[in-house]
Amino acid sequence: MIEHDRPRDECGVFGIHGHPEAAKITYFGLYALQHRGQESAGIAVANDKRIDVHKGMGLVHEIYTMEDLEKLPGTSAIGHVRYSTTGGSVLANAQPFTARHKNKTYAVAHNGNLVNAHILKEELEEMGSIFQTTMDSEVAIHLFIRNVQRGFVDGMVETVSRLKGAFSFVILTGKGELIGIKDPNGFRPLCLGRLNGHYLLASETCALDLVQAEFVRELEPGEIVIIDDSGIRSIMPETRVTPSMCIFEYIYFARPDSTIAGRNVYQMRKAHGKRLAREAPVEADFVMPFPDSGNYAALGYSEESGIPFEMAMIRNHYVGRSFIQPTQSMRDFAVRIKLNPVKEQIKGKDIIIIEDSIIRGTTARTRVKALRELGAKKVHMRISCPPHRFPCYYGIDFSTKGELIAATKTIDELRDYLGLDSLHYLSIEGMLAAGGVENPERHFCKACFDGKYPVPFDPSISKNCLGD
Ligand code: SF4
Fold this sequence. Notes:
- By secondary structure, the chain is of the alpha+beta class.
- Helix content is about 30%, strand content about 25%.
- The chain has a seven-stranded antiparallel sheet with strand order 3-2-4-1-10-9-11.
- A hairpin with a 2-residue loop joins strand 2 and strand 3.
- Helix 4 crosses helix 5 and helix 9 packs across helix 10.
- The site of iron/sulfur cluster has 11 residues, from helix 17.
């Protein structure tokens, strides 16, 4: 796959309560969240105590026609776009996942990764639970159903206290109640919006924008909201956890038009680029991104340094998602299919490339080689985050440590491997300073950069906690 050299997020979630066109609004919400997962998508609608679901493999627009959405009547719905971090990429693992118990139906959509799913699954199996999928989200719904038998709110609080790791959930009941849950660390974003008096939940504010909903607020870390016909209730279980929002949402995952925890992603990326220009200045004819990933940091670098910004590589927006590359030469084609350099702009020039991250380095190496072949005199690279030296266990698909090139090479070795004249990464301090918050260590997870994991996990268990 062309994208395999890029980190991939795991999911986006959306939900709406009490709207006459719940399925259609959810469809458009998922459209806006497509960048968070492109393997499968699903919509579940509560309709007269039952829940109807339509899921499929592929992109949102490939899965649904307007006729499909007409066949999903009901006024409350949840939706999900998925890239698999736990469980294989098969339709059975597409979400929302539904479960039926004692004539009650529930649907759940999850963004994140539970680091104790394997322990909980074993416990539940001991108690007789039978699992249909390999998703950690199914473990959560089993636990939830078991616990709510003792009372809905207490059951949810108990469930949240047992789950470890990253989770932003939207849950739908057959009666049409919509529930949103954010884990106590607040790893993944989840926000609340309102459209003509109807509440919505979405992974990112860009989904609220698309359906023209107003932003109400972010869910607090650890918060549970229950939305029903009587309005909205918020439950804040007591927790002693220090929040640790994923800082990589700002650098790479979230859409630049989204705002998370009060900070706009576009502006954060520009701030990272500006800081990078101060930390690692170099003379050149122009600054360029590898579009689209480095665009906004490159704008910031250019603005701060006074070096002109150019788009000297042009992105082909019509590349399919599954270009198979069995040989090295085919792999090279694949990289070139996506981005093509503007020859006339490059010959004889000193260039600064801004990238947002390097994971395996294979794609960057091919692109630098292409610039050299076209006559670039000097090629410098600046990365708008620190080196990725540690895997993520909270729902982001970084390679294992051995595949993270910055974990196996020094910066000088990496510079030579990529064929660059110079290479610099943004410092951890610089990345945190751009957030403009006091005591940033108490706000963000940055474990993939410094190995300080905010939620402990069993290192003998692979990232895929259910072991499939
Ligand atoms: Fe985000 Fe990195 Fe923490 Fe994973 S380890 S949650 S990618 S900051």
